[in-house]
């Protein structure tokens, strides 16, 4: 992998990742007359729950569903230059121009998986998916080392139903100055499990899932994908490496090599699940241990869709949004069976 670092016109960092960079020249300047990014993010603690809330009012002016011919994530061409000034790229990462977190409150980055506007992650080759994994890993290492960063979160939102404002295939990485509420809950649950049993919670969860054939979806030598026993979403799959590691930087080469084919297979099953011509909306989220207190946590990916049936969405309504009490319309065992059977 070759990593090429440059800057955009307003001083934001832009990084190109190439699988074989022997012929890649990544020094095209950004010709746009941009002013420096002005971020007014503010962190406030909810005293009733202890959760940190990010106030980012400046994001109201961010780009929203632009026409394809002016997509800011496509490569540059005659008459149009967006966020990536090169006329072609493999994987590109840059600082978000409309960040929720910046400066003392963290950092937000955009990860462009491919220059193809109408593609999706499931359309990538295994080699390109591996390059994305390498980019995620590199950014995790770099961002974790920044002062004040407590947790690095790599994720992809796909589909207007999820709230995506740029349809070009891309994901995001947040370098957070706090531990997220979900990770804090996992940390507490893992500590309680260790006290009660002397064992690691996530190793036990994976062992039980691998023994429960009715919830398995895919399995390889180094990874297993399964529907959790208490799935929150209609179709929710967790993908775990068999060896517990805290974050992406600790994976072995063998684990990295096997991941792309399994993950692409899983995304393809999600897209074919409902028999619809349009792709399935989803959230794909890497859970990594925070810098402090994450010794018992396990790296894993959680993939879920808000679609519960053709033409029907699972909205986080009163119980979910108001009380954080999820109620699932699809039995996890039925969801796993359908994902296993889909062709």
Structure description:
With 343 residues, the protein is α+β, with helices and mostly antiparallel strands. Helix content is 24%, strand content 23%. The strands form three sheets. Strands 1-2-5-6-8-7-12-13-11-10-9 form an eleven-stranded antiparallel β-sheet, sandwiched between helices. A hairpin with a 5-residue loop joins strand 1 (2-7) and strand 2. Helix 1 (126-144) packs across helix 4 (253-272). The model has no long low-confidence stretch (mean pLDDT 95).
Q: Helix-strand pattern, N to C?
A: EEEEEEHEEHHEEEHEEEEHH
What's the pLDDT, averaged over the residues?
95
Give the N-to-C terminal Cα separation.
Answer: 33 Å
Work out the helicity level: 10-25%
Strand percent estimate = 15-25%
Note the total helix count: 6
What distinguishing features does this structure have?
6 helices; 24% helix; 11-stranded antiparallel sheet; 343 residues; two-stranded antiparallel ribbon; alpha+beta; 23% strand; globular
How is this structure best summarized?
This protein is α+β, with helices and mostly antiparallel strands. The chain has helices at 126-144, 181-197, 201-211, 253-272, 318-323, 332-341; strands at residues 2-7, 13-18, 42-45, 52-55, 91-95, 107-112, 151-158, 170-176, 216-219, 223-226, 235-241, 282-287, 300-305, 307-309, 312-313.
Question: Topology, please?
Answer:
Elements: E1 2-7, E2 13-18, E3 42-45, E4 52-55, E5 91-95, E6 107-112, H1 126-144, E7 151-158, E8 170-176, H2 181-197, H3 201-211, E9 216-219, E10 223-226, E11 235-241, H4 253-272, E12 282-287, E13 300-305, E14 307-309, E15 312-313, H5 318-323, H6 332-341
Antiparallel strand pairs: 1-2, 2-5, 3-4, 5-6, 6-8, 7-8, 7-12, 9-10, 10-11, 11-13, 12-13, 14-15
């Amino acid at each position: 992998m070759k990593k090429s670092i440059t800057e955009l016109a307003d001083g934001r960092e832009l990084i190109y990742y190439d699988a074989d960079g022997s012929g890649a020249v990544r020094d095209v300047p950004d010709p746009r007359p941009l002013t420096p990014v002005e971020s007014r993010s503010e962190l406030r603690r909810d005293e009733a729950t202890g959760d940190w809330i990010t106030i980012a009012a400046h994001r109201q002016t961010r780009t929203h569903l632009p026409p394809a011919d002016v997509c800011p994530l496509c490569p540059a061409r005659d008459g149009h230059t967006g966020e990536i000034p090169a006329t072609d790229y493999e994987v590109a990462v840059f600082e978000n121009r409309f960040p929720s977190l910046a400066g003392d409150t963290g950092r937000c980055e955009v990860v462009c998986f491919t220059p193809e506007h109408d593609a999706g992650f499931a359309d990538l080759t295994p080699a390109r998916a591996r390059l994305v994994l390498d980019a995620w890993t590199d950014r995790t290492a770099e961002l974790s080392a920044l002062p004040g960063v407590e947790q690095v979160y790599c994720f992809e939102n796909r589909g207007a139903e999820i709230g995506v404002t740029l349809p070009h295939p891309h994901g995001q990485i947040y370098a957070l100055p706090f531990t997220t509420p979900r990770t804090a809950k996992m940390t507490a649950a893992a500590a309680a499990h260790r006290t009660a049993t002397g064992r690691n919670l996530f190793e036990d969860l994976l062992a039980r899932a691998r023994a429960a054939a009715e919830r398995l979806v895919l399995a390889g030598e180094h990874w297993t994908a399964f529907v959790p026993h208490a799935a929150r979403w209609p179709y929710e799959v967790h993908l775990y490496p068999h060896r517990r590691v805290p974050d992406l930087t600790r994976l072995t080469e063998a684990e990295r090599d096997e991941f792309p084919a399994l993950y692409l297979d899983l995304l393809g099953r999600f897209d074919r699940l409902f028999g619809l011509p349009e792709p399935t909306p989803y959230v794909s989220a890497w859970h990594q241990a925070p810098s402090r207190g994450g010794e018992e946590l396990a790296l894993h990916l959680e993939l879920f869709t808000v679609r519960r049936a053709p033409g029907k969405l699972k909205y986080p309504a009163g119980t979910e949004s108001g009380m954080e009490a999820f109620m699932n319309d699809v039995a996890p065992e039925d969801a796993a069976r359908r994902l296993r059977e889909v062709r």
